[in-house]
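Dear Dr. H.,

I hope your travels went smoothly. While you were away I took the liberty of generating a structure for the chain from your last submission, since the lab meeting agenda had it listed for discussion. I wanted you to have the full record in hand beforehand rather than looking at slides cold. The sequence, exactly as received, is reproduced here:
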Amino acid sequence: MTWMDRLQHFTPLDLAAVGLIYAAWLFIGWRIENPQSEKPSVSVLMKEYRYEWMRQLVTRSPRIFDSQTLSTLREGTSFFASATMIAIGGGLAAIGNAERLMGLANQITLESDPAFVWEVKIIVILFFLMNAFLKFVWSHRLFGYCAVMMAAVPNDPADPNAHPRAEKAASLNITAARSFNRGLRSVYFAMGATAWLLGAGALIVATGITYFVLWRREFASQSRSALLADTDNMPR
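The corresponding predicted structure, in token form, is as follows:
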């Protein structure tokens, strides 16, 4: 059986639903990282606070608080990297037992699709999970680079290397946070992609819900309002 023959098991609505979830994933990521200047996202607002963190680092002594904060960030990336690795392993195991998965899925959806259909649906989920894993691993490494750069900031605020190195540490911190946020978005859409197991209609609905949740948390959440309350007083 050729690939074209196998693709006939998917309806045009299935293909449209898959295209929609990938388009939503790409667009919301671009929108969050490139918002309108008059309506910044939480991620963009936090970028300013990360710069301010490193400005304060220069004059803070001792810097135990800073090291503990960075350790907490690294623990978060490590946790999510481990969680996505486990999820990827579970997805690969499900593909290896596609016949058993097909029997369970057919009972839920009352459809008699072949194992190939369920394998493809799991692969779509695995794509998001693998992307999330790679983002979390890279974020963890960047936070490590940031830790080294923070340690290289001289204790004397008057040292000519103090502020330039703090700026470099801030840039590394922001890049690490961006990778972490991208990983989280992939996890959100991986969970949304599981709805395809119930059908194309369910996937479309899940995509809409996932998009709305991400948009609200970045552009209409209480945490964003709290950040905006002090942003105008921050140095640029």
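Two observations you may find useful: The radius of gyration is 22 Å. The mean pLDDT is 88.

With kind regards,
E. W.
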